[in-house]
């Protein structure tokens, strides 16, 4: 299957700072990528759809000014959590559609802890 | 009512048992169905991908889709302790955006 990587795998930051998370498709191109948030023992919550060459599409209730998404190339999307607060602590996961366009491959996730 | 319903478990079985995991859904437009396995603190791993109704087998895993009943299943034969994880069903109607079940936590005891 297709491989999606994320960096960093784990990050601890202080309240008020910004954190950037990278999502890369390693062996395929992705014009669309998805960003999810997952709380402990809960399912994935879609935050936004990242579109190469255009603005991201955010789900209802997700603050676009707080969670900045940039799809810089066909293999890279970044999520920046700005002015992070402890309530932003979570597991963030990205995904990209496979060649069939309907299945998705997920990255390993990034655990963010805001102190 | 959620669009996709999945029993959260936990489901505890002895090693070697046959495991049956299920999801029901309400949107008849869904055509593509997936099962993901997620280990703790890891991203979901695609296990099975099926289109429309029918069965698909891959090693110890069999996925079944019954669109008439809006019911999908994942069977795991000869379950192993390494199968212990959370299993998520997901589906889409060809728009790329997936709708997930809540996940079932499976524990296979040696």
Q: What string, H for helix and E for strand, traces the elements of chain B in order? A: EEEEEEEEEEE
> Mean pLDDT of chain B, nearest integer?
94
Q: Which regions of chain A are unreliable across 5 or more consecutive residues at pLDDT < 50?
A: none
Helix content class of chain B: under 10%
| Oligomeric organization of the protein chains | heterodimer
Shape of chain B: globular
Topology order of chain A in helix (H) and strand (E) letters: EEEEEEEEEEE
Percent helix among the residues of chain A?
Answer: under 10%
Report a brief summary of the structure.
The complex is a heterodimer of chains A (115) and B (110). Chain A is mainly β.
Explained architecture:
Chain A is an all-beta fold. Chain A has no helices and eleven strands. Chain A has strands at 4-7, 10-13, 19-25, 32-38, 44-51, 57-58, 67-73, 76-81, 90-97, 104-106, 110-114. In chain A, the strands form two sheets. In chain A, strands 2, 4, 5, 6, 9, 10 and 11 form a seven-stranded mixed beta sheet that branches. Chain A has a four-stranded antiparallel beta sheet with strand order 1-3-8-7, with no helix packed on it. In chain A, β9 (90-97) and β10 (104-106) form a beta hairpin. Chain B is mostly beta strands and 110 residues long. Chain B has no helices and eleven strands. In chain B, strands 2, 4, 5, 9, 10 and 11 form a six-stranded mixed beta sheet that branches. In chain B, strands 1-3-8-7-6 form a five-stranded antiparallel beta sheet, with no helix packed on it. In chain B, a hairpin with a 4-residue loop joins β7 and β8. The N and C termini of chain B lie far apart (37 Å). The mean pLDDT of chain B is 94. The A-B interface holds A 1, 4, 6, 32, 34, 41-44, 46, 49, 91, 93, 97, 100-109, 111 and B 32, 34, 36, 41-46, 49, 51, 88, 90, 92, 94, 96-98, 100-103, 105.
């Amino acid at each position: 299957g297709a491989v999606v990587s994320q960096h960093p795998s784990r990050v601890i930051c202080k309240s008020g700072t910004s954190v950037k998370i990278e999502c890369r498709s390693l062996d395929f191109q992705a014009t669309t990528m998805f960003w999810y948030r997952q709380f402990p023992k809960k399912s994935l919550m879609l935050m936004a759809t990242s579109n190469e060459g255009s603005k991201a599409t955010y789900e209802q209730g997700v603050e676009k000014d707080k969670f900045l998404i940039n799809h810089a190339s066909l293999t890279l999307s970044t999520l920046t959590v700005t002015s992070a607060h402890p309530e932003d602590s979570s597991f963030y996961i990205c995904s990209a559609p496979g060649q069939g366009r309907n299945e998705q491959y997920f990255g390993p996730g990034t655990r963010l802890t805001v102190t | 009512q959620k669009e996709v319903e999945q029993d959260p478990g936990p489901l505890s079985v002895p090693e070697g048992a046959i495991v049956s995991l299920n999801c029901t859904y309400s949107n008849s437009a869904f055509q593509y169905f997936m099962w993901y396995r997620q280990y703790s603190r890891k991203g979901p791993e695609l296990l099975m991908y099926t289109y429309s109704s029918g069965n698909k087998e891959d090693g110890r895993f069999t996925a079944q889709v019954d669109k008439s009943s809006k019911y999908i299943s994942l069977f795991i034969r000869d379950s192993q302790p390494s199968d212990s994880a959370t299993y998520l069903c997901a589906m889409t109607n060809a728009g790329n955006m997936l709708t997930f079940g809540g996940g079932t936590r499976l524990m296979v005891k040696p």
